[in-house]
Amino acid sequence: MEFIPAAKPLIGDEERAAVDRVMRSGMVAQGPEVAAFESEFSDHFVQGRPVVAVNSGTSGLHLGLLAAGVGPGDEVIVPSFTFAATGNSVALTGATPVFVDIEPDTFSLDPAAVAAAITPKTKGILPVHLYGHPARMRELSDIAAAHGVALYEDAAQAHGAALDGRPVGTFGQFAMFSLYPTKNMTSGEGGMVSTADDATARAVRLLRNQGMEKQYENEVIGYNARMTDIHAAIGRVQLTKVDAWTRARQQNAAFLDQNLDGVVIPPVAEGATHVYHQYTIRVLEDRDRLAQALREEYQIGSGVYYPIPNHRLPSLVGFAPDLELPETEKAAREALSLPVHPSLAAGDLDRIVEAVNALARAGA
């Protein structure tokens, strides 16, 4: 059997031709391709909001937080069940990441836990639209407004996700989208920062480019977090394909929903548009054994995102000594992401269903 990978970047001839066009132009640093990509991404995903391209999703989070005024003495409420970049980015500003529990259906911040964690030091709330499902933005927006704190968004995995018809990336003061190779679309590497206003966008632009908009006129101490025109050219091509890929992900997810048995399939909240960066089931007994059997017996890859919650990581545990987050710990034991990417054929989906169902019946 041919191996079915958990994820598969899609790079075609059009992307190669775009890179070659930029290479021939001689303009390979941040230039006209980046500007065009920012404009096109804005129109495609975030209803024309100002958008700033950077060299990675993590840079996008870091610079977005800095542009929003987050720094030493502040607290930002974040989930622990996510990639470490979320908490890391808060810590890199000098602020304190405050880890709170998730609610079980969407794997995102539990609004009640967020409300309980707000203190006079709370600067903002940073939910993650995990796996491509929007976080509980109705409730989180209300909490932020009631307490006079900011709302940010980690939309790294959620290109095109929406809640009540409103796209993710349009709720917070800023939002970050990742363009890493395994995301729903890629620029090879990179990130996009969507902002609520021109002032925040300008601050991100300054921070990404050594603190300057005009050459040698450095206004603030900044970073080198620029996107190249090579990466932007790839991203512009991918923008023309991502909607079809999203529909394929949703169709693959619907097939898995209808046919999987013996595991907990991912629910979709009322009013939510899920873009299935990951199709994440819960395996109630011995998740790791099932994942191993999928690989060894059926040649099917899967992913555990994330086996160690952020508040247990050696790098971040100092911010949360002795913290207990029961739903987060449970998800870290049970969550398993199955292949859902657009490259799957009908036979691949049949094999995934056959394997998971057989292994679940057998107790894996």
Distance between the termini: 20 Å
The parts where pLDDT drops under 50 for at least 5 residues are none
Q: Supply the helix-strand structural class.
A: alpha/beta
- String of helices and strands: HHEHEHEHEHEEEEEEHHHEEHHEH
Q: What helical percentage do the residues reach?
A: 25-40%
Tell me, briefly, the overall form.
Answer: globular
Using the CA coordinates, give the radius of gyration: 20 Å
Specify the biggest β-sheet: 4 strands, mixed
- The CATH architecture assignment of the largest domain turns out to be 3-Layer(aba) Sandwich
Percent of sequence in beta strands: 5-15%
CATH class annotation of the largest domain: Alpha Beta
The strand order across the widest sheet is 1-10-9-6
Overall pLDDT level = 97
Describe this structure in words.
- This protein has 364 residues and is an alpha/beta fold.
- It has 2 domains: 13-101 and 108-239, Type I PLP-dependent aspartate aminotransferase-like (Major domain) (Aspartate Aminotransferase, domain 2, 3-Layer(aba) Sandwich); 242-361, Aspartate Aminotransferase, domain 1 (Alpha-Beta Complex), CATH 3.90.1150.
- The protein has helices at 13-25, 32-45, 57-67, 85-92, 111-117, 137-147, 198-208, 229-239, 242-259, 287-298, 326-334, 346-361; strands at 51-54, 75-79, 96-100, 122-125, 150-151, 153-154, 162-163, 166-167, 174-178, 191-195, 272-273, 279-282, 335-338.
- It has a 4-stranded mixed beta sheet, with helices on both faces.
- The longest helix has 18 residues, at 242-259.
